[in-house]
Amino acid sequence: MRDRGQASRASPALIMGLVAIAVLGSALAQHRAAERPKSLRLYVFDCGVIKGLDPGLFNFKREELAETELAVPCYLIVHPKGTLMWDVGAIPDTAFKDDHTPVTEGYFTSTRTLKSQLAEIGYAPSDITYLGLSHYHGDHVANANEFAAATWLVRQVERDTMFAEKPPPLSDPSHYDLLKNSATVILTADEYDVFGDGKVIIKSAPGHTPGHQVLILKLVKTGNVMLAGDLYHYPEERKLDRVPSFEFNREESLASRAMIEDYVKRTHTQLWIEHDLVGNSKLKKSPAYYD
Description:
Elements: H1 2-31, E1 41-50, E2 70-79, E3 82-86, E4 103-105, E5 108-110, H2 114-120, E6 130-132, H3 138-141, E7 151-154, H4 156-162, E8 184-186, E9 191-193, E10 200-204, E11 213-219, E12 223-227, H5 235-240, H6 250-267, E13 269-272, H7 277-281
Parallel strand pairs: 3-6, 6-7, 7-8, 12-13
Antiparallel strand pairs: 1-2, 1-5, 2-3, 4-5, 9-10, 10-11, 11-12
């Protein structure tokens, strides 16, 4: 009887221990880092949509555009040597409530956090090797501070503008201020080879902002892909060569476009307009990927 009583008294502690082990096991399973692939992968995340912008900002009339809404994608590039996060959304994850309801801030609406989409494929912000931003506008940097532990790949003129005494237009420094103390690689050449094997290239394309840049991926099955940042917003910009009214330097933007168009033609590279809602809707979204 004594042994049975001792077993009974021990049961609550035993149960609590088992519960703790189960909770820890679940947490570890959710945060377990994914295995690195043998070849390059590109994941496309849904980071929201932009609604209600005046087409006149882009020097268009409403009837000239097939679609006025803009997609907001985020991208994870997974290489055998590490990971690169490219553009990180318009709404910070911290704006979401526990009930995971959609969040709208101004023109931006998002239905999912970036961290939840990363976790779905086995990654956390702490697993990311490099952070790259096409440029500093608010719809591309909202979660930048989540990746402050990564190495930031940026051009000096862009970094200087971001941390100038007067914040640049269309930016919210509170979303990226922690990057000021991040490990940083200042990109000086026209092209920067992220992993040293020619498969992930950051290419300078200034004009939209002082240090605007695009990302070129050389995927085995998909072929060459360029994530073009805000070189264009709508497909009609590319067809009609319209330039938004809010470019940092219109002449530089036109020169960058001409240079990029020549590049994609010579190298047989697919140019993905990041904000193109129709084009983005046709892309595979994570957990599917391009390789």
